[in-house]
Design brief:
alpha/beta; 3-stranded mixed sheet
Length: about 210
């Protein structure tokens, strides 16, 4: 194929990416179902999950959280924000939110519970049920963001999750940093592709946390 023809195709692809990415989207992200793990006789309580992410107005890198300045910038929106769309030239466009009723905290909470359940822990949801033998988890979310990097033949979608965990147990207190990143190439940034890469990062997060749970 002649170079000029390739260039035209690349430009048309970039324009198509821009045209489908101008508005906000809400995604229904699912956490993988729990395995049928044998109980290890321990129980865990997720005490707190706090979103520590910092948003910037015009970040120098797409992996830094930001929101479309023409849209609402409320704390409720930030709690649901999980990514930012871009056109084929890398220009920031519409936001990617979790579906109404879901937040970054609730999604992370489910992921942490999933990891412990897969390791045989009984997850309790009532603080009144906590005993001296209960494992207690506090989590700070440092990163939970999806972004796009443009390319001539394909784009790259990435999703990164990073948390600092404090786990109190009968054996003492431990601190763990769980940090993962998923990335893959696509022809276009459809909502299904965004969902796929985000869910891949969640699966990586759960598996990494499971590998570090005693």
């Amino acid at each position: 194929m002649h170079f000029s023809s390739k260039l035209i195709i690349g430009i048309l692809s970039a324009l198509m990416l821009g045209g489908c990415a101008t508005n906000r989207s809400a995604l229904d992200i699912k956490v993988p179902k729990a395995e049928q793990a044998q109980s290890n006789g321990r129980q865990v309580f997720i005490n707190s999950v706090v979103d520590k992410r910092l948003f910037q107005i015009s970040p120098t890198s797409p992996d830094i959280p930001s929101l479309d300045p023409s849209e609402d910038q409320t704390d409720k929106i930030k709690m649901r924000a999980i990514g930012r769309k871009r056109n084929g030239f890398g220009k920031a466009l519409g936001d990617i939110l979790l579906k109404d009723g879901e937040t970054i905290q609730s999604l992370t909470d489910k992921s942490i519970k999933q990891a412990f359940a897969d390791k045989g822990y009984t997850v309790i949801t009532s603080k009144e049920a906590v005993t001296k033998d209960t494992y207690i988890v506090d989590a700070n979310i440092q990163k939970f963001w999806a972004w796009m990097n443009p390319g001539f033949w394909q784009i790259t979608l990435s999703s990164e999750v990073s948390t600092d965990l404090t786990v109190k147990s009968p054996k003492g207190t431990t601190n763990q940093q769980i940090s993962v990143k998923a990335a893959d190439g696509y022809q276009v940034a459809t909502e299904n592709n965004w969902m796929e890469i985000i869910q891949k990062s969640i699966e990586l997060y759960i598996n990494d946390l499971k590998s570090k749970i005693n």
